[in-house]
Write a structure and sequence with these properties.
about 260 residues; alpha/beta; TIM Barrel; eight-stranded parallel barrel; 11 helices; 8 strands; about 15% strand; globular; binds pyridoxine-5'-phosphate
Length: about 260
């Protein structure tokens, strides 16, 4: 069993911009939120420049790139416009997601299999520019294998269906989705991909998923920005980190037990 790697927390600040835009003024500032999240222990910041600019705007992305001290993960659809903006912004990473104008949030994973020919040159352009590419996909073996074939070094598993099933108490669906996630994480690691997870995570689900040793990064937005209303953003980051650490401690214990078992054989 490989050693359990550290687990990073990426905080998505999109919904700080959602609140700002509801008033049409310049507050609250997503860049201020990003800096505060970093001070409180976030390892990076994620922001999604959507085609309709419903929350994060071009100038937010430029300011995040210029002003934050930790890696910026630029979430984007695979359109010529976004590829050009992201190449100009040169973030630490891009996360390629499917996008439909009418959706409330990113509803499903990217169809890497069906978009192979479109993705290969895009992944290559970012890689050549020194930008790490992550593909946001469902926990589907065919999509994971396709992600490795297009040359992406990272996948982010869409865990929204699992989180939703837990939230509504649908045990059967939650168990089935969890099994898919566990298998997907192992398959992806075996294919040489770094594995991230995101969408719909809260303290409970973040703790559980942190116990999977293959997961290297969680990207979390909606729940933490919502919690910030009650406890403050810094506290919600600290509470999330604590939940992740509880889960990771379980992964380390399991790895130690497996090692002891192998040694006594
Ligand atoms: N990761 C990706 C790729 C996403 O599209 C989103 C939603 O913007 C998230 C993570 C964060 O999801 P949530 O806001 O539900 O925590």
């Amino acid at each position: 069993m490989p050693p359990v790697p550290p687990l990073r927390l990426g905080v998505n600040v999109d919904h700080v911009a959602t609140i700002r835009n509801a008033r049409g003024i310049d507050k609250p500032d997503p860049v201020r939120a990003a800096k505060l999240a970093i001070e409180a222990g976030a390892d990076g910041i994620t922001a999604h420049l959507r085609e309709d600019r419903r929350h994060i705007r071009d100038e937010d992305m430029a300011r995040l790139r210029a002003e934050i001290s930790k890696p910026l993960n630029f979430e984007m659809a695979v359109t010529d416009e976004m590829v050009a903006i992201a190449l100009k912004t040169k973030p630490h990473a891009v996360c390629l997601v499917p996008e439909r104008r009418q959706e409330v949030t990113t509803e499903g994973g990217l169809d890497v299999l069906g978009q192979h020919n479109r993705l290969v040159p895009v992944v290559a352009r970012f890689t050549d520019a020194g930008v790490r590419v992550s593909l946001f996909i469902g926990a589907d073996p065919a999509q994971i294998e396709a992600a490795a074939r297009v040359g992406a070094p990272v996948i982010e598993i869409h865990v929204g269906a699992w989180c939703e099933a837990i939230a509504v108490g649908d045990r059967a669906t939650a168990d089935a989705e969890w099994q898919r996630i566990v298998k997907a994480a192992a398959l992806a690691q075996a294919a040489g991909l770094e594995v991230h997870a995101g969408h719909g995570l809260d303290y409970e689900t973040a703790e559980i998923i942190s116990s999977l040793p293959e997961i290297a990064e969680l990207n979390i937005g909606h729940f933490m920005i919502g919690e910030a209303v009650f406890v403050g953003l810094a506290q919600s980051v600290r509470d999330m980190r604590a939940a992740m650490e509880r889960g990771r401690a379980r992964a380390r214990t399991a790895a130690d037990q497996a090692k002891d078992h192998a040694q006594t054989k």
